[in-house]
Amino acid sequence: MYDVLYSTFFGIGRLLVLIILLVIIFSFVPFGLRITARSSGVKIRMIDLIAMKFRKVQPKLIVNAMIKSTKAGLSINMNDLESHFLSGGDVNQVVDAMIAAERANIDLGFQKAAAINLAGRNVLESVRISVTPKVINTPEVAAVAIDGIEVRAIAKVTVKADIDKLVGGAGEETVIARVGEGIVTTIGSSQTYNEVLENPDKISKTVLNKGLDSGTAFEILSIDIADVNVGQNIGAKLQAERAEADKNIAQAKAEERRVQAIAVEQENKAKVVEAQAEVPKAIAQAFREGKLGVMDYYNMQNIQSDTEMRNSISEMSKDDGNKK
């Protein structure tokens, strides 16, 4: 009885160990991937799939990329795919871009596609733009013609990606900035705003002839003015602001002169008061020195009173005349 139980438990233990070993093997060794690769015509060794695990490479990603490239008739080295993956690149995007380039008869090797991808550009989108040009809408650009009238324009720029310049070439922002600069220059050199409104194609031709795509990752095919509008009369506005500034300056100077005149008047009044204060002193000095008698003083007072009375009568006569 004991032997039977021992044999049973021993058999169950061996079965469990075997099951565990099989689970570990199947989870670590990608048999399914190798079968899929073989059935798709991709020759890949089991040892290579296991080595990818140790190199922290996703075997499924590499195998699927190899299958896509093989089905498309491309010859891509598995080590190149692993290297690109370990460099932080998008393996699927590179392979898809190469397939799209092959269909469009564009010369795009793996090294160039990988370099474009590692440069931070969407290589698949770039291939598509090189086949089907892309339209870039510029924001509204405002400029002032020589006659002082503001003109606002919006342009549509049709570009095609230049595969050879994608690495190191400037992007869409540079193209938009250069086109905007060309629009401002063209409008600014026009004599009148009517000249711009009547011939909007002048902007397109002038800007297109400047070679704005130099140093960029695109080739500009056409520049079309989508909308042109008249803005403010900047010249008149500046003249009005200048006139207002001149008026403020003149008023400030006039106020300065008025304040100076008031100050001079107050100063003169102070001098008169000071001089009047000296009169009694002079009279007292004349009495002491015997140069002025009492009768002379009274006569002088009478003359002063008579003068004041005449002045009062004269002022009253003027008031009566004004009332009439």
Give an account of the 3D structure.
By secondary structure, the protein is an alpha+beta fold. The chain is built from 13 helices and 4 strands. It has helices at 2-28, 31-39, 46-54, 59-71, 78-86, 91-103, 110-118, 123-131, 172-188, 193-198, 201-208, 234-289, 294-323; strands spanning 134-137, 141-144, 149-161, 218-233. Strands 1, 2, 3 and 4 form a 4-stranded antiparallel sheet that branches. Helix 6 crosses helix 7 (110-118). It is elongated, with a radius of gyration of 50 Å. The termini are far apart.
Give the overall shape, derived from the CA principal axes. elongated
Structural class: alpha+beta
Distance between the termini: 155 Å
The radius of gyration computed from the alpha-carbon positions, rounded to a whole number of angstroms, is: 50 Å
What is the N-to-C order of secondary-structure elements (H for helix, E for strand)?
A: HHHHHHHHEEEHHHEHH
Tell me the fraction of residues in β-strands, as a range. Answer: 5-15%
| Helix content class | 55-70%
